[in-house]
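Continued from yesterday's entry.
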Amino acid sequence: MTTPLLNDSFLKACLRQATDHTPVWLMRQAGRYLPEYCATRAQAGSFMGLATNVDYATEVTLQPLDRYPLDAAILFSDILTVPDAMGLGLSFAQGEGPRFEKVVRDEAAVAALAVPDMHKLQYVFDAVSSIRKALHGRVPLIGFSGSPWTLACYMVEGGGSDDYRLVKSLMYSRPDLMHRILAINADSVAAYLNAQIDAGAQAVMVFDSWGGVLADGAFQTFSLAYTERVLAQLKRSHDGHIIPRIVFTKGGGLWLPDMKDLDCEVLGLDWTMHLGKARQLVGGIPGGPGKALQGNIDPNILFAPPEHIATEVRRVLDSFGRPHTDGSTTGPTHIFNLGHGISQFTPPDHVSALVEAVHSHSKALRQPTP
């Protein structure tokens, strides 16, 4: 597990250290937009067949890295593995989103919840170890989980939702039950991410995919507080290396001042937030505390012609401004990513245009001004 990293730009940027280019990886970078992924998924027979098979999970995690010069790998899995291990019965119908056989909507269902035995998730940790070994130091490996609130949305709704009616009804009418669900989820997520770190994850990310659907006030009480509970329990280092922690709240840009003091290294942003403004709010100053920023191009730019993709990449990089370049201290840094996951309909060649534009323009931005 101690193979030296050939490309550590992602980890350095997470820790607000200077890099020679802006590192880039993509949320959902191993996915249906890649023909090789679709071929492997067909072999596996189902999404869960893919995610629970160590060899398949390793293969699809590495596929985008074989195609593009990305600066990080992310574990191939799903955010709903934790509630599945709680016994809620996760399934994926072809062409549909995830569904749970059991839902959590009343006192009896909440009383039955407990932090799952992590042995039920051993297939995830085995995949982390296998991927880390297969990477052989090419790039770092990111582990991840859904946030306590996002997991609760699926557990109460029974799947995805357009209006979050059921989960918000429970939250407003029985906040005691919602707090109980969230506390169990937070402790489960912390144990899950710590086990991924033990297995070889070199950074971990909390996806608060549905934090942005909450009202102001409710976000702080029912989402942010429980993300804090997760972060407080996470391992800070492993094998002598710091393990950066990333928090991404879709639709959470207006709460950046509330997230400024989160006990994490990186804040992810969706495409609604201006990176320069975010840098002013939370990016910190050279030598002082602050957060690295991750994001935040609109994934739909990838349907435009390559030259338009390159223009938009330059605009996003320019909006952050000149990155920190002083190797002797820390300062504001940026990790390029999408503002949410990549669409399954994305032309693979367009991703090449994006990655190339990020690397070339970010290197140019670091050149000293005459």
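--- second protein ---
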Amino acid sequence: MMKRRMALLLCAVMVVSMAACGKEKTEEKAADTKETAETTETTASEELGEANIKDFQYKALDYVTLGDYSGLDVTVSGEYEYSEQGLVDYVNNKMIGTGADSYYKDESQTEVAEDSIVNVDYTGYLDGEAFDGGAAQNVLLDIAGNSTPGGGSYIDGFSSGLAGAKVGDVVDCDVTFPEDYQAPNLAGKQVVFRFQINYICGHASYETLTDAYVSENFGQDTVEEFLESAKTAYQENLDETYNQDCRMAVIEQVKTNAKINSYPEAVVSARSDDYIRLMMKQFGVSTVAELDAAWAKDTSMDGATVADYRSYVEEQVKSNLDTEMIFLAIAETEGLELESEDFDDYLKEYLGNNEGVTEESLYLNYGSTAEIGELYLKNIALANKAVEFCKDSANITVSTSEAE
């Protein structure tokens, strides 16, 4: 649950939308930007200045007037109580889902229908010769959707000739690739796909679970064992949903009651600069001018410049600071502190849910230096501690709606 808690206040630096700040730019502006950038020789440190940790520090109470935040009356609405139907829905929607793993070999079905999911091997032939990339084995096909179950689509007509075939049949289907197909040797060509119908699938559900299915897909020996684990997961999901709904309700009420008087401009400027430093790393450049030049060549940027981006980022920084400052102000008022063991647990929970992420790489996702990233995460962790303080003191009512 710690990871979910973090997400309520933590906004990933690297996913700030760049497209949103460049839609109005023209190709002429992009060309002008590129020409200017190529004649600029200043370094990143000269353009932005070296990141100084002191510029990222502030006292929240200097900028926030707090309203009521303790003993709040809040109401949440949702399904938080365990029920047998809820367990069935949880297993079907959360644990089994609709992906490829949710299908099993149904030996009772022998003929492919218009809406069947079938397991096939296939090979594509052009002028009688198998072509590269045209073969696959043990593929699930959604006949009605001409796609993999819940996945990508095939070219028009790929699976349309399989309805009516029986398990074990070999079926040849004539298919024409579109004129604009990405492989030039196949664009506009008529080919033959030869299918081997291996079996027809049934869709797994709570009611159709078998020992073989749960063993293959969940690593448990019996349905009974699987359902015991499902009950535990379902209850944890209910508890987590209730906790998150309570937190969100408290956060919104505390924010409504508080007033942001102003923003720490040095922090807004420092964080905005740091976003740009991180973008330089992402694009592999060392100056703002080089970043402008790189963006001028990148059609996805729509001609946006670093100046456009910085203006946009400043507004995002302020938006992120709204919640952060209010709850840091509560921490300052209540004397809440982030103990080292608290932060260690906070990081361990996050890292444990993100394979391959190290403590240092996590810091460098949220700052151009590890020191800056660590400070940012500590602010978020302390703000979350203040959220918990407010939630623990709140009077929480669960709203129930009766069917008319």
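The first strand starts at residue 64 and ends at 65. The chain has two domains: 2-69+258-399, 106-207. Will compare against the first tomorrow.
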